[in-house]
């Protein structure tokens, strides 16, 4: 991996390079995506089935688009029983973590007759998109579905592309059943996002769409936002390791490569105060790459978006980490908890040498649907709050309004909204 001295110039160049990976940089595909969305919106199932034949080479009809219980039973038979047990353990951990995020409705009456409050209710229908083919990740099924379940969403549907024979990845189906998905439909790509956003004869319209996908799926979610809520417009995966001279270079190298193998646009960055650690990590990376199955992807990812940055002191390293605002941040310093207190921007923080990033991907419980491309500056991981609505409650007695009515009328009149003022005034004529 390239080793670079950290300074204002290299930091700016790095940030500019990373931002090239954002879905917002792929406007050349937007017209194609918009055409797909519009056709599905107008022609519904007919367009959806046509696109499934074109892109997935599979004949889907109203009779076979929904996955049956027999297909789910077959999926269990074709999935390693050991994986089934691990997914069940993971699901229990994810559920327990997200149950701690639940909030209750509240109401606050005052002695003057004022009653204010907030009512929290789940959305009615949630839609989950799950990629197919080589990018089939059952762990993402659990992460997208279980927070919605905990929030109390009553109907959860899932779309995922079929293969040419009309089959869906068995691990995906088993995970969906473990998580409690209510309906699964064989549809993929931008056309599946459009189907969930606007509804077709076969697929119901949903209130929110979550889940990862390729650039066409990401742009479709972006285009449909406003007609339907979405989680985020996710970019390629990324990891940043913040380390000092106490870090184990073998562990650091392995953790960097855990994200570089995702795809050629994934980002893996080490920021360290130790030149010696930087050189040892670079050597370990080279050794690991020779052994790993996704060697070509890793090499292209590291060549384009892999960096080892050497900082003069830890505060400089922390400042750079906050500016990058990485999806995954590992802290491997002498006192990682103390270092963490200075971190402002990160999707998920992993503390200490036995908390490597895949722990969060698969098992610990916190959600692995995380903000990417620097959006951890203002976005959060997928959580229970993403699947509820908060409604304000307001009630004033006559006496309570009488104390405030002249203030309200003045405010409204100063804004030129006389009908607003009159709505209050008529009650005290």
From TrEMBL:
Its EC number is 1.1.1.23. Zn(2+) binds at residues 259, 262, 361, 420. NAD(+) binds at residues 129, 191, 214. Pathway: Amino-acid biosynthesis; L-histidine biosynthesis; L-histidine from 5-phospho-alpha-D-ribose 1-diphosphate: step 9/9. SUPFAM superfamilies: ALDH-like (SSF53720). Keywords: Amino-acid biosynthesis, Histidine biosynthesis, Metal-binding, NAD, Oxidoreductase, Zinc. Pfam families: Histidinol_dh (PF00815). One of its GO terms (cellular component) is cytosol. It catalyses: L-histidinol + 2 NAD(+) + H2O = L-histidine + 2 NADH + 3 H(+). GO terms for molecular function: histidinol dehydrogenase activity; NAD binding; zinc ion binding. GO terms for biological process: L-histidine biosynthetic process. Belongs to the histidinol dehydrogenase family. Catalyzes the sequential NAD-dependent oxidations of L-histidinol to L-histidinaldehyde and then to L-histidine. PANTHER family: HISTIDINE BIOSYNTHESIS TRIFUNCTIONAL PROTEIN, HISTIDINOL DEHYDROGENASE HDH. This is Histidinol dehydrogenase. The gene is hisD.
């Amino acid at each position: 991996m390239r080793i670079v001295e950290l300074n204002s110039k290299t930091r700016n160049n790095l940030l500019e390079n990373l931002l090239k990976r954002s879905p917002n940089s792929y406007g050349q595909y937007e017209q194609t995506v918009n055409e797909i969305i519009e056709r599905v919106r107008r022609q519904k199932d007919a367009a959806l089935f046509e696109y499934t034949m074109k892109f997935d080479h599979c004949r889907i009809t109203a009779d076979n688009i929904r996955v049956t219980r027999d297909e789910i039973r077959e999926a269990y038979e074709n999935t390693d029983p050991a994986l089934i047990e691990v997914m069940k353990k993971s699901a229990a951990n994810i559920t327990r973590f997200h149950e701690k995020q639940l909030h209750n409705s509240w109401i606050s009456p005052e002695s003057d007759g004022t009653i204010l409050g907030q009512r929290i209710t789940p959305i009615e229908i949630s839609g989950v998109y799950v990629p197919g083919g080589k990018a089939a990740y059952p762990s993402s099924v659990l992460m997208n579905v279980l927070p919605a379940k905990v929030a109390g969403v009553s109907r959860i549907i899932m779309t995922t592309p079929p293969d040419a024979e009309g089959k869906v990845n068995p691990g995906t189906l088993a995970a969906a059943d473990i998580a409690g998905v209510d309906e699964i439909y064989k549809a993929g790509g931008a056309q599946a996002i459009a189907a969930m956003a606007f509804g077709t004869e076969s697929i119901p319209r949903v209130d929110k769409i979550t889940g990862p996908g390729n650039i066409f799926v990401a742009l479709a979610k972006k285009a449909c936002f406003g007609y339907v809520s979405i989680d985020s417009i996710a970019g390629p995966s990324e990891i940043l390791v913040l380390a000092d001279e106490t870090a184990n270079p073998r562990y650091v190298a392995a953790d960097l490569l855990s994200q570089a193998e995702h795809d050629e646009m994934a980002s893996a960055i080490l920021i360290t105060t130790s030149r010696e650690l930087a050189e040892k990590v670079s050597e370990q990376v080279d050794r690991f790459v020779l052994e790993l199955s996704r060697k070509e992807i890793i090499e292209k990812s590291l060549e384009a978006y892999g960096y080892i940055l050497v900082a003069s002191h830890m505060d400089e390293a922390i400042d750079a980490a906050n500016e990058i605002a990485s999806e995954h941040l590992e802290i491997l310093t002498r006192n990682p908890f103390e270092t963490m207190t200075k971190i402002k921007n990160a999707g998920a923080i992993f503390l200490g040498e036995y908390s490597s990033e895949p722990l969060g991907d698969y098992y610990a419980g916190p959600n692995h649907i995380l903000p990417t491309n620097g959006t951890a500056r203002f976005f959060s991981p997928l959580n229970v709050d993403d699947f509820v609505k908060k409604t304000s409650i307001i009630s004033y007695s006559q006496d309570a309004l009488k104390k405030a009515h002249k203030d309200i009328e003045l405010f409204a009149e100063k804004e030129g909204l006389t009908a607003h003022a009159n709505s209050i005034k008529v009650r005290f004529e």
